[in-house]
Amino acid sequence: MSKFDSIRPYEDHEVEKVLLDLTKDKDVIKTILTVNKNNWLQKIPMIEKLVAFFLRRKTKNIKTIKDYQKFFESIVVDVVNKTIDNFSIEGIENLEIGKGYLFLSNHRDITLDSALLNLKLHQSGINTTNNAVGNNLMNEKWASDLMRLNKSFIIDRSGKSKKDIYKSLHLASEFIIHSILNNSQSVWIAQKQGRSKDGVDYTDSAVLKMIHLNARKNTSVSEFFNNISLIPVVISYEKDPNDLLKAKELYLTSINSVYEKEPREDLLSISDGITGNKGNVHLYIGKPMKFESNSYDDIAELITNKIKTSYKNHSTNIAACIMQGINIPNHEFTENEIDEAMEYLNQRMHLIPEEMHPFLLKQYSNSVL
Fold first, then answer.
1. Residue (of 34, 62, 40) closest to 264 by Cα position
2. Where are the domains of the chain?
3. pLDDT score, position 265
């Protein structure tokens, strides 16, 4: 038994049983029907048994993690083809095949940020990453199973004593270090807990402290992050399929201070993020960063600045500034492109109450500001 069994991604010998259990799981079938846009499906007699049969057929030839990733890749390619107008990438040449990296990324979409990076890595002959996932997405075992099949590992921060949380974070730190330095297996992790719902990307020094936790007695902060090959990753979406939900959450938080998520809200966000129109998407992969300071805050600030300056703004970002009367620097977009972006944002705002409009626009304009 490995010390990492409680958090690590699944391994080849576990795949068949996990998949078989998932195809029988009533919660899996219920969720598929819940997030499906075709309400008429739920009216079909014995639809649950039909969905279970379909799932078994789809997964019957998946025997290993590599098989599962190949299956998942076909889904991501389909998402790119159907929901992204142009998917551009910058910096893939910075990576060496066979080397492990710490990909520290801005975070806009629950699943696609890492999935789109891994698609480009795989297409370039580079090993895909182990992906850090907060246990808030793992409340239901089947969701945990799906993510762990796709090389996700769990970071547990909640619901325990301080001692238990410390032990959980220490284990996650050890797993990250072991993956990168011992197994040459890259890790993807968001620069802060949760998505940047307001469009402001910043690096939380607490994330850096957690990553360094297991090595802090033996290695200085700067030496550790220089050794672990930290690469900044920046993803930008022209259109965010979850912008309405984010605007609602930001508005309600501003008046109530606390926002209570509805049941299955994260799952609906995942579904909308995958199926919704994203316009143009750009992915930036930096070079390994070098640090001199032993201050977590200093390192976090350097990473934040790199991510902000590497973010590619789209026409929607510029249009959102103009719609708020904000003076903006020169940009590359035509008048027609800006007009189309403004029309798109106006269409989105018509779907939510007027008091939420500023929160939607700021999501898009903050990356410019």
1. 34
2. 12-239+277-310
3. 77
- Would you say residue 44 has pLDDT above 80? no
The CATH number assigned to the domain with range 12-239+277-310 reads 3.40.1130
Residue 156 has pLDDT above 90, yes or no: no
- Cβ-based neighbour number of residue 139 at 10 Å: 10
Q: Tell me, what's the pLDDT at 357?
A: 98
What is the arithmetic mean of pLDDT over 72-92? 96
> How high is the pLDDT of residue 157?
79
Query: What is the average pLDDT across 218-236?
Result: 98
Angle formed at CA 58 by CA 52 and CA 61, multiple of 5 degrees: 125
Digit-coded pLDDT (tens) for 16-42: 999 999 998 888 887 777 666 555 555
Q: Three-state secondary structure along the chain?
A: CCCCCCCCCCCHHHHHHHHHHHHHCHHHHHHHHHHCCCHHHHHCCCHHHHHHHHHHHHHCCCCCHHHHHHHHHHHHHHHHHHHEEEEEEECHHHCCCCCCCEEEECCCCCCHHHHHHHHHHHHCCCCCCEEEEEHHHCCCHHHHHHHHHCCEEEECCCCCCHHHHHHHHHHHHHHHHHHHHHCCCCEEEECCCCCCCCCCCCCCHHHHHHHHHHHCCCCCHHHHHHHCCEEEEEEEECCCCCHHHHHHHHHHHHHHCCCCCCCCHHHHHHHHHHHCCCEEEEEEECCCCCCCCCCHHHHHHHHHHHHHHHCCCCHHHHHHHHHCCCCCCCCCCCHHHHHHHHHHHHHHHCCCCHHHHHHHHHHHHCCCC
- Give me the chain's average pLDDT, please: 92
Number of residues in the chain: 369
Averaged pLDDT, 53-75: 93
